[in-house]
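Lab channel / #folding
Pinned by the channel admin:
"Please post every new chain as: sequence first, then the structure tokens as a reply. Keep commentary short and put observations after the output so the thread stays searchable."

First post following the new format, from NK:
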Amino acid sequence: MPTHTATRSVEEKKRLARRLAGDGRGFAERYGFRVTNNPAQLFQVLYLSVLLARRGDFHRAVDAATALREAGWDTAARMARSRHEDRVRVLRAAGLRGDLAGLADTLGDLARTLVDTYRGDLRRLRTAASQDPAGERRLLITLPGVDDEVCDLFLREAQALWREAAPVADRRALAAARRLGLGRTADDLAGLAGSGESERLSWLVGALARVDLERRYAEVTA
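Reply from TO:
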């Protein structure tokens, strides 16, 4: 599909951005993961991000994250106490494929590290970074299973709450933004969302990521 960057006016871009962000939910909330500033929800968004970063059907990643939560591992402390073989079983039942033993190890290590370092509370990581975006990224990437892509996916959601982290847009959101003529960078999208509107930006980039993952370009441009 050709890009519309050259033909879309600023006002047209803003109208499309408002339409995309109109349901008032980011990516995680669209799939049942609340984004609130408490330890349980932040941890769930983090392990959802770890699963989404794996290659494959993103619906299975969402299903796996939901299954982990429904198994009772909704906090870092509870995940840390879970058994490796139980995590493997839940991931397999959710339809994931590949190295599930390695993934189960990563999730367990992630939970234990959060408990040992931040008492299971990612807000403490934010405080340790003095709410500095570069510091938050640096500390997040020290966690097991968290690389630059996972960090982008987590902060895509968390920027609604951790406003200093904005603007953040993951690679899927940026791919959709380019194809829809909305810009090429997170700063471009922040300009469309509005100054200081980190929550609206989170909704916009989440919607764009869904457009790319679900291949809904024709629907959006109709």
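NK: The mean pLDDT is 94.
TO: also worth noting, The CA atoms of residues 80 and 131 lie 26 Å apart.
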